[in-house]
Amino acid sequence: KWVNREISNFDYLIQLNTMAGRTYNDLAQYPVFPWILRDYTSEELDLNNPAVFRDLSKPIGVVNEKNAKTVKDRYNFEDPLGIVDKFHYGTHYSNAAGVMHYLIRVEPFTTLHIQLQSGRFDCADRQFHSIPATWQALMDNPNDVKELIPEFFYFPEFLENQNGFNLGQLQISKEVVNNVILPKWAHSPEDFIYKHRKALESEYVSAHLHEWIDLIFGYKQRGPAAVEALNVFY
């Protein structure tokens, strides 16, 4: 059905996540969706321009070419005791802390986050406060390899601090962390979700989505293909 364009990219990804044993009922196996855009700074989002899209054939940790050397060096490091298997990334593209990070403004994830942080909110600089800044951090830091969750494509409320939680303020700019800062091309949380979902269903993503699926659900998860794709996780 997906090949024949009878179901959407969104539906296909949800089905794959379900078949892979991922579920909304388990934060450690939460559905995983890809970062699909790389342009979070333009005034307008041009979905006819391939340059606005992330390279879906590469793991998020090496979408920025500059990180590839660090990642390869980590893999080539020999454990002197021979206990630890080789890996490119010591963290994972999907984990419970990452889900709570994105959904901190909505319950029950707020409470779960507070429990994880020993009874209080984590420091403001580590909170999810800006989509452009989150993307930039991924590009700058090969240790941050979080992909997205499905909510980025249908749930505008998670981008707003509707419950008025005190999430603190950033250390350097003293900016108060409140609603999530959106890309310039999005005029509201609803507009972001609308355009982001449109990007997911675009011609470019439809033609390249299988490359990302190979990394997460397919033959590039393990073995020689995973090594070659810089896609081995601890």
UniProtKB/TrEMBL annotation:
One GO cellular component term, please give it. Answer: cytosol
Domain of life according to the entry: Eukaryota
Query: Which Pfam families does the annotation name?
Result: Beach (PF02138)
GO MF term list: protein kinase binding
- What InterPro entries does the annotation carry? BEACH_dom (IPR000409), BEACH_dom_sf (IPR036372), BEACH_Domain (IPR050865)
PROSITE patterns noted in UniProt: BEACH
Task: Please give the biological process terms from Gene Ontology that the record holds.
Answer: intracellular protein localization
**Residues in BEACH domain copies:** 1-234
UniProt entry keywords in alphabetical sequence: WD repeat
Protein name in the entry:
NBEL1 protein
To which species is this protein native?
Turnix velox (Little buttonquail)
The protein's gene is named Nbeal1_0
